[in-house]
Amino acid sequence: MSHPGPVDEPDKRTLRRDFLAARNRLTPDDVREAAEALAGRALGLPEVAGAHAVAAYVSVGAEPGTLALLDALRARGVRVLLPALLPDNDLDWGEYTGEGSLARVRHGGRMELFEPAGERLGPDAVTRADVVLLPGVAVDGRGLRLGRGGGSYDRVLARLAAAGARPALLVLLYDREVVARVPAEPHDRPVDAVVTPSGVRRFR
After folding, report:
1. Where is substrate annotated to bind (predicted)?
2. Of 5, 30, 52, 131, which alpha carbon lies 20 to 30 A from 44's?
């Protein structure tokens, strides 16, 4: 008996396109104000307040902003790890030591990313983080995340599981990106909480 591909893939693509189109309508002021609110909410979480190491990412374009949070974490003495995209879509990691430690990198025809310019620590470095911030475009009432579609963070989650690592999994989103349901697959793993400018919602 043959099994077709995931039936929800077109739904994922459509949803992703709609959410990204809504982000692209935000003004720079909207993005900046949301980033400041997100940083304040995230820094107030006990998991973040007690973290020694946080794996994060640098937001680009109209993504919910992360730089204010990264700098606040560094000011607290937290080790901040940032991803570097590998040719096979897996992620290596490097340390963030301020905006001067970032390099602007273009991968093929895709958007430019900001990646750590210094020493690479290896894909397994993420397993030593107390908190992992996952990028996404939506999360649903079960805590299931709709990602950007590249699969890089599915590998991160699989690596964490294989290592027996249990960091807090957080996603930063705009308020309207918390929805009733997103298409899911059996391997999808729920996040622990979503942080939006107006508050925090926990899932477990």
Report:
1. 58, 63
2. 30
Q: Is the pTM of this model over 0.85?
A: yes
Cβ partners under 8 Å of residue 97, min gap 6 = 74, 118
**Element spanning 24, H or E:** helix 9-24
Which pair of tokens denotes residue 73? 């974490």
Is 152 marked as a binding-site residue? yes
Domain ranges of the chain: 9-199
Average pLDDT, integer, range 160-176: 96
153 has binding-site annotation: yes
Q: Is the pLDDT of residue 10 over 60?
A: no
Superfamily of domain 9-199: NagB/RpiA/CoA transferase-like (3.40.50.10420)
Strands 131-134 and 53-55: parallel
Question: Is 146 within any annotated ligand binding site?
Answer: yes
